[in-house]
Each structure stands twice: as C-alpha cells, then as structure tokens.
Amino acid sequence: MTLRPVSDDALIDQLENGPLHRFADYATLTDVIPGSGAGVYTIWDDAGGLVYAGIAGRNPAGKGLASRLRSHANGRRSGDQFCVYVADHYVLPELSRQQVEDIRDSRLSMDALVRAKIHADFGFRFIVVDDYRAAIRVENAVKGGRLRAGRPRLNPSRASS
Asked: Which pLDDT score is estimated for 120?
C-alpha cells in the first residue's frame, strides 16, 4: 500500500480549520507538538483573525515546531519576531503612562506583559510537512492570502498574490 502525499490545499486547510491550541496551554501540549522536523504554523486571535504565519525545521534533525512555539509562548522579545510584533501592535497601545514608567524603572517587565497577552488572546494551529521546501511553499501560500482569513496581520507576504 502506497501513501499518497498530502496536497498543499489539504495542508493549508488544516492551518485554518485544524485543532486550535491555546498558548496558555502550551505546557500541556509537549507530547502533541513535534520536537524536530519541518512544519508550518498559524497564529489566531480570539476574534478568529489570522495574526501570524511561521515555519520551523530548516535543519531536519534540529529544533522544530515545539521549540519555535515555545519561544512564542515564553513572550521574550529577544530573538523572537512574533513577540516583538505582539509588543508593538497589541501591548504598547494599551499601556498606561504609569506602566510605561514602571517598565522604564524596571518595576514591570515588558516581556511578562507580552507573555500574558499571548497566553490570554492567541492560539495556534500547526502542520508537519515532509521537508523544509514544502514548509516554505505552504508558508508562502498562507502569507500570500490562500486562507479564507486572508493574509496574516503581522507578517503578510510582501509579494503580490
């Protein structure tokens, strides 16, 4: 019996309609998310809007989806573009003058606020693909607007679709 490869359309559909996992529940999902291999993920807000699309697994034996999604769940802006975007587009506009001063004076952690926002308001879907080339192809399709939800708010493709 030969297995037919899953089509890009089927993979893209899973990124829009597959199980939605909450970042707040990340610690309980370690057995579900692959630690290595190539994959693509989408991040959604509580209103059902597509926020971000990402990829993991450039090195098949290296860190995969679990590491990438854990980094997002941690909320640390250093080295994590999604967390930077959340800080800039979601957290900063909501800060009070007092919170800005508290961050400035190290009484409040911006990373902690980013983590709290991610855990409170975002979930993700993911797929595993055969190789990194397939992951890039699917991620580019998502960023280019192939989902009914349109392009990701925070990192759409710069190329026209």
From this structure: 98
| Residue 157 in domain | no
Number of domains comprising the chain:
1
Element (H, E) at 52: strand 50-56
Give me 92's structure tokens.
Answer: 């900063």
**What's the pLDDT at 80?**
95
Could you give the 3-state DSSP secondary structure of residue 127? Answer: strand
In single-letter form, the type of residue at position 23 comes to F
Model confidence band, residue 58 (pLDDT cutoffs 50, 70, 90): confident
Three-state DSSP state, 21: strand
Q: State both tokens at 103.
A: 């961050």
The pTM (predicted TM-score) of the whole model is 0.91
In a domain, 123, yes or no: yes
